TrEMBL record:
Pfam families: DUF3456. Belongs to the canopy family. InterPro entries: DUF3456. PANTHER family: CANOPY B (PTHR15382:SF8), CTG4A-RELATED (PTHR15382). Keywords: Signal. This is Uncharacterized protein.
Length: 208
């Protein structure tokens, strides 16, 4: 009985969503947070594809006699296209960490809240959140909205990303070039530099 009342209190204060249709407690990402995560995921994807030292041939000749131009894959348009492909899909790997209040609430991995709840279920405790257990780990409304914002930013700033990739990637971080200096000019961009605090950094522990 106590645990059920405790859960109701958490729901009331917005720590857990009672269901996908319920809007109370839902806090969508703002433009700063969306741009930050797009830049983070694209940079991560470029790091993955940048490990290749392949040299590729580009160009086309009808008679296939004229030699094709050889270029490093690491500097090629092909690498950029492959890195951009499905980059916003990676956001579906994120979860909402409602024990955090800043932009770091969007992060991969299970939140402390749901780790605790899953642990209780594993111990045989009946936990009623108003949604089936199999839906607990499905992307929330905030995450699907974040993915949509990512796709919109990608479409709007495609040329900016291309310019950074071909001309500036060795000198300016993508997050600074895309977000701080362009997408968020004249807007609050402090979220770009928020980092997840380890428990020992603040002297406080995350609580359910």
């Amino acid at each position: 009985m106590f645990f059920r009342v405790f859960l109701v209190s958490l729901l009331f204060f917005g720590h857990i969503l009672a269901g996908p249709e319920e809007k109370e407690g839902v806090k969508y990402a703002d433009k700063c947070e969306a741009c930050k995560i797009l830049a983070t995921e694209l940079q991560a994807r470029l790091t993955e594809t940048g490990k290749s030292h392949d040299v590729i041939e580009i160009g086309y000749s009808v008679d296939d006699v004229k030699p094709k131009k050889r270029t490093s894959y690491k500097r090629s348009e092909l690498r950029l296209l492959e890195s951009l492909e499905n980059v916003c899909e990676r956001i579906l790997e994120y979860n909402i960490h409602k024990e955090r209040e800043d932009s770091t609430r969007f992060a991969k991995g299970m939140s402390q809240t749901f780790k605790t709840l899953h642990g209780l279920v594993d111990k045989g405790v009946k936990v009623d959140l108003g949604i089936p257990l199999e839906l607990w780990d499905k992307p929330s409304a905030e995450i699907t909205n974040l993915k949509s914002q990512c796709e919109s930013l990608l479409e709007e700033y495609e040329g900016t990303i291309e310019s950074w990739y071909f001309k500036h990637q060795d000198n300016v971080p993508l997050m600074q070039y895309l977000c701080e200096e362009r997408a968020l000019v004249g807007q609050n961009h402090k979220c770009l530099y928020e980092v997840t605090q380890e428990k020992g950094d603040t002297g406080q522990k995350d609580e359910l």
